[in-house]
Specification:
Blueprint (H helix, E strand, L loop, with lengths): L17 E2 L6 H5 L2 H10 L3 E3 L4 E4 L2 H9 L3 E2 L8 H4 L9 H7 L10 H10 L4 H4 L3 H15 L4 E3 H6 L1 H11 L6 H12 L8 H27 L5 H7 L1 E2 L2 E2 L2 H33 L10 H14 L5 E6 L3 E3 L2 E3 L4 E5 H4 L34 H18 L4 E2 L4 E2 L8 E3 L1 E3 L2
Parallel strand pairs: 1-2, 3-11
Antiparallel strand pairs: 2-3, 4-8, 5-15, 6-7, 8-11, 9-10, 12-15, 13-14
Helix pairs in contact: 5-12, 8-10, 8-17, 10-11, 10-14, 11-12, 11-14, 12-14, 14-15, 14-17, 15-17
Length: 418
Amino acid sequence: MAAIVQLTPYTNVPETARISADPQAPEFVQNPYGFYQQLHAVSAPAFWDQYGHWCFASFKDVSALLRDKRFGREILHVATREEIGMPQPQAHTADFDLTEQYSLLNLEPPGHTRLRTLVNRAFVSRHVEQLRPRILKLANEMIDAFQDQDSVDLIKAFAAPIPAIIIAEMIGLPAESAPQLLAWSNRMVAMYMFGVTREVELDANAAAAEFTDYLRGVIAERRKQPREDLLTHMITAEQNGERLSDEEVLSTAILLLNAGHEATVHTTGNGVKSILESGLDPATLFTSDAQTAATVEECLRFDAPLHLFTRYTLSDMDYNGIALRKGDVVGMLMGAANRDPARFANASSFDPFRTDGANVSFGAGIHFCIGAPLARIELQIALSTLFERLPRLRLAEPPQYNDVYPFHGLQKLMVRWD
C-alpha cells in the first residue's frame, strides 16, 4: 500500500472536532496555509473529513508524535490484516508494492535499524560535505546553459536536474540517466498523493516495473564489477554476518532516488519564490555560510516540500483525550507546524534573519530524513549560486503550485534576469 490510509472508520468523533478541506480544490492547492490557520485558531487536534483521520497541526504535537514509538509506519508486525480491516495486496500494483516492501520509509525496528545502519554512512555530514565542489559545478553548468535566454522555467532548468544527478551518482548510476530516473520517480510518487485513481495506480506500477528491471541489471553488473559507490556498498556490506537481499537493495535504492530529489526540487522552487516575493534584497541573504544556512532553514520552514506525514497507532490508547484503536491513522501536518504562531513570531512572514528558526520539514525520530545533510548542502549551494550569478532575478509570471498534496511544490517557476 503506497500511502498510509485509515482502514476502518473512526467512531465517536465530536462534530465540533471535524474540519473539511478538499486537498485538490484549486484554492487549497495554491494556499493550504489558510486551512492551517483555522487549525491553529482552535489550538486542538482536528478530524480531517476528507482524509478520515485525526490531524495534528501544532509544532509541539507534530514534533512529539514524530518521535513517539507508540506510532509507526508499519502495522502488520503487531496486527493481522483481518484485525484492522486491511485488504489483501492488489495484483495490479504488485510491482509497486515490491519496491515498497523493504522501504526505509515504511519499516520499523529491527528491520529499519538494520537497513538504515547499512546505508547511513553515505549520508553523514562529513561525507556529503565532499560533494560541495560537484554540486557547485552542476549549479554553474545549469545556469550557463540558460543564462542567454530571455526567461526560463527554473524548476526544469535548475531545481530538478541538480539533486537528481547528485543522488544518481552517489548510488552509482550515470548522470545521463537522471531524466529517466526523474520520469520514473514522478510517476511512482503519485501513489502518495490524495485522490489516487486506478489509472494512477496502473501507471505507477508500470514505472516501478521499469525502474526495477533497470536496477536489477545494474545490480548484476556491480556483483561482477564492484565500484566505489553506494550500490556496491549495499550489495557487499554485512551486519552480523547478514547481507541485504536483492529486494532490499532495490527498495532502498528506489527510495533514495525518489526521496533524494523530490523534497529538494520543491524546496528550491518554493524558496526562490519566497525570496523573490519577500521584497528582501537577495544579496543580504547569502553574506556568510551562517546566513546562507539560516536562509535555507527559513525556506524549509516557510514553504515546506511535504505537508502531511501519517503513522499507524500500534495499540489501543487514549492520546490527549482522543480514543485511538490499534490500526488507526494519525496525521502530522508539518506544513502547519512550521507556521504555528505559538512557536514562531510572525509565523506567516518569511524572515531569514529570525532568531526562533526551526522546522520539522525533514521529520524527526527514527524516520528523520536520512538525506537531510545532503539536501541542506544542495539547497545552500544552489540558492546562493543562483542569486550570485543572477542578482536581478525576478518572476516572469505568477507561480502556480501543482496539485500534488501532501507534497507542495510549483508546476513551474518562470523567471527573468535582464
